[in-house]
Amino acid sequence: MDKAKYLIIGNGIAGLAAAREIRAHDENGTIIMISSESTLTYYRVKLTEYMSKEFTDEELLVSKENWYQDKNIKVILRKLVEDIDITNNKVRLDDGQEISYEKLLIATGSRPFIPPINGKYKEGLFALRTLKDLHYIKEYLKSCNDVSLIGGGLLGLEAAWALKELDKKVNIIEFAPYLLPRQLDKEISDKLEKKLSEHGFKIYLSSQAEEILGDGAVTGIRLNGKRKLESEAVLVSSGIRPNLDLVRNTEIEYNRGIIVDKHLKTNIDNIYAAGDVVEIDGMVLGLWTAGNEQGKIAGANMAGKELEYNQPKIFTTLKIGNIELFSAGIIDDFDRVHEYKDDERDIHYKLFTRDNKIVGAILFGDLKEMNTIRNAVISNTSIDEYIKKDSRFK
Ligand SMILES: Cc1cc2nc3c(=O)[nH]c(=O)nc-3n(C[C@H](O)[C@H](O)[C@H](O)COP(=O)(O)OP(=O)(O)OC[C@H]3O[C@@H](n4cnc5c(N)ncnc54)[C@H](O)[C@@H]3O)c2cc1C
């Protein structure tokens, strides 16, 4: 049986960040990473952009193969961990191989959520999560003209743009009454919708896909209200679910994700978790930067440090074509809104205040002020102070 001082399940950014950090604090302890995918850690965040680009898998790698050799980190690819034996500190892989550990990190990430839609198993309905998905989707799309996107969130809109760059006609189907309701108010969302429509996207709001049409392969979608859209492929972007299969039959506590403390430790003393698979303060974040930071903290703690993780403030930026927007903080619970508008340049900024302090912001059309405004939201700057420096806001 192979033995690891540090065993990491999953080689996404959380797993890799942990391995890096462990090696920074422990030069010699054996580190083994296991992944069911067939590639070393890659920039998953770039997959959407690469839908419309030529690339080699190598370009997407976060660290090249020789880095793992230099750091003496063993990576086992194309193997699924099927079982964790907490009592005996070992795991079993799908080929029967067992590996024992002193410290274990679960960094199994998440998978796309596909809502229950009739006919969803037809050929041509997919979600983009892995490099393998990307290769399959790119090939499939070569013979498609009309493509529908279920889910008009940030990732969905980025994907819609990539599809447009591939010269596809794109339908965007969104359940909410306006686009990006968590990041935008209705007024700015309407502006976004208008711009997207000008680029040729067909947007269906307050809409739900009820059935995927076609014999075997997708030929269309039936929406609620019985409207039918022609579509040769459907890309689903409706959120994620943590990969919890491994922990379901163990004593490791989980809810929507694996529950960890500030040190990223689970309820089992030598088992940590990080990345999309964890839930902290009731939230599953599903963000690259959070996975990276959590991996670092978990790795350092596994190697004997005592670091704490603090949830980051969440900011959103969307840059597709000539559309730029930024959203930060609280935009739905405020006393006043201070605005700056330049209709000619299609710029619209809003600062949301509570008790005269800036608690949230939306920038549309131009992001030059993004860093200044982000800092104002983080430090809850007084609006009077802010307006003294930038008198454009009314
Ligand atoms: C298309 C796309 C675009 C995105 N864009 C952004 C963005 O712009 N900004 C942002 O912040 N975030 C973005 N994200 C989210 C971001 O990529 C994730 O938050 C991040 O990659 C999660 O990293 P992770 O290490 O937790 O998990 P993952 O990257 O999911 O890695 C987990 C790995 O574990 C493997 N695994 C799972 N179970 C097992 C098992 N039992 N045995 C062995 N291996 C296993 C999986 O195959 C996978 O390789 C995007 C995601 C996608 C899919």
Provide the descriptors you would attach to this structure in a database record:
FAD/NAD(P)-binding domain; alpha/beta; five-stranded parallel beta sheet; 394 residues; single chain; 3 domains; binds flavin-adenine dinucleotide; Enolase-like, domain 1; FAD
How are the elements arranged and paired?
Elements: E1 2-9, H1 13-25, E2 31-34, H2 65-70, E3 73-76, E4 81-85, E5 90-93, E6 98-106, E7 110-112, E8 125-126, H3 131-141, E9 146-150, H4 154-165, E10 169-173, H5 186-198, E11 202-204, E12 209-213, E13 220-223, E14 228-230, E15 233-236, E16 240-242, E17 258-259, E18 271-273, E19 278-279, H6 288-302, E20 315-320, E21 323-329, E22 336-342, E23 347-354, E24 357-364, H7 370-378, H8 383-389
Parallel strand pairs: 1-2, 1-6, 2-3, 6-18, 8-15, 9-10, 9-15, 10-11, 17-19
Antiparallel strand pairs: 4-5, 5-6, 7-16, 12-13, 13-14, 20-21, 21-24, 22-23, 23-24
Helix pairs in contact: 1-6
The chain binds flavin-adenine dinucleotide.
